[in-house]
Amino acid sequence: MATQSAEDGSAGTIQLLRQNIPPRYYVGFVAFLVLAALPLGLSTVKILTMTAALYFAMFVVSWDFVSGYTGQVSFGHTLFFGVGGYTAALLNLEFGLSPVLTVIAGVLLTTVAGLMVGFPALRLHGHYLALITLLPPLVLIRFFSLYRSTFGGETGLPNPDNLIEVQGDFAATALVNYYLGLVVFAAIFLIAFVITRSDHGITYTAIQENEDAVSSVGINPAKFKLFAFVMSAALAGFAGAMFVHTPIGSASPSQLLELTVMIEILIAAILGGVGTISGAAVGAVFIYLARDYIRGIDTVVPILDMPVTRMDTFLFYVLMLGMLFFLPGGLLPKLTVFGRKIHARVTGGSPKAVTDGGYQQPAFVRQIEAYRTRILEALAALLRRDSK
């Protein structure tokens, strides 16, 4: 009898989970399994490319965490990748510290940098906010050029130690570091995903939609905006510090700091779907692999009489421009709507017009309703206590 009850309880729990977990979450889990199995059929070069794509996705997710949800559009997020990456590389190369310690130091210093940039940015909006976030990485690049003996100038620093090294077997080293990168990507993604779907995340979106309405119910937007900015910086610094300790990464402006990196981050987030986290990850992996594919085409363009490899950057940006034009809302939202229609057709229901966070109402209305519910619950508790 007890065994039967336990089985019934387990079946009920599974059924409840099936009813409450959106199908797109299962798709995400399957995508993770595909990424885990992918290296088994790839060459070492392709494994390194996938590793770089994962770290680029971490960069984009960290940017989307703050800019996609609070509306604090940062045009200089590469500052945090650079601070984390250069700190980790310098401490390893100059002082011989282990990659574990250098990564921790990189995250701590990046958090401080996030506070230094985020605090004065609280009162700024629009062009002023864009300028104050755009200038720091440009200043840092110039600083590294002036002190090239220490920071390597435009070429960057030599490669530091790998996070995990398999002596005498580069292919095994690349494979192990790929899986480590996949774990780090999953951790950063889950942190950003969980926070943006918590009460904090609702508040972030509410601030973006109507900051005055949020303030009117007694919430301090500055506190939430600063937390989001610093958390985003810490995630970016963590990814940057880890990246330089991989076989494919290095502490150089071209990989961490240059304006082109920031432009590609913006393209990836917009193409995937700003303010979705999942879309940022999908867009990042897509455009990184698309660019790598275009670079590998050796066909000569007939009219221009020029190989594709010599005009890969031009073709890449033309392709991205076309996709942004035809997919203004982002790739993931389009796929989500399509998936809901298919799911509704299979199940016989009707597609639900919900957002990525699972809500239909404006975020600030949801937040006000949440606080209203809490107040009513508190009043009800007081009434019950007084009636005893």
Automatic annotation (TrEMBL):
<dbReference type="GO" id="GO:0005886">
    <property type="term" value="C:plasma membrane"/>
</dbReference>
<feature type="transmembrane region" description="Helical">
    <location>
        <begin position="176"/>
        <end position="195"/>
    </location>
</feature>
<feature type="transmembrane region" description="Helical">
    <location>
        <begin position="314"/>
        <end position="332"/>
    </location>
</feature>
<feature type="transmembrane region" description="Helical">
    <location>
        <begin position="128"/>
        <end position="147"/>
    </location>
</feature>
<feature type="transmembrane region" description="Helical">
    <location>
        <begin position="25"/>
        <end position="45"/>
    </location>
</feature>
<dbReference type="InterPro" id="IPR001851">
    <property type="entry name" value="ABC_transp_permease"/>
</dbReference>
<keyword id="KW-1003">Cell membrane</keyword>
<dbReference type="InterPro" id="IPR043428">
    <property type="entry name" value="LivM-like"/>
</dbReference>
<dbReference type="Pfam" id="PF02653">
    <property type="entry name" value="BPD_transp_2"/>
</dbReference>
<keyword id="KW-0812">Transmembrane</keyword>
<feature type="transmembrane region" description="Helical">
    <location>
        <begin position="52"/>
        <end position="69"/>
    </location>
</feature>
<feature type="transmembrane region" description="Helical">
    <location>
        <begin position="100"/>
        <end position="122"/>
    </location>
</feature>
<keyword id="KW-0472">Membrane</keyword>
<protein>
    <submittedName>
        <fullName>Branched-chain amino acid ABC transporter permease</fullName>
    </submittedName>
</protein>
<keyword id="KW-1133">Transmembrane helix</keyword>
<feature type="transmembrane region" description="Helical">
    <location>
        <begin position="226"/>
        <end position="244"/>
    </location>
</feature>
<dbReference type="GO" id="GO:0015658">
    <property type="term" value="F:branched-chain amino acid transmembrane transporter activity"/>
</dbReference>
<feature type="transmembrane region" description="Helical">
    <location>
        <begin position="75"/>
        <end position="93"/>
    </location>
</feature>
<feature type="transmembrane region" description="Helical">
    <location>
        <begin position="265"/>
        <end position="290"/>
    </location>
</feature>
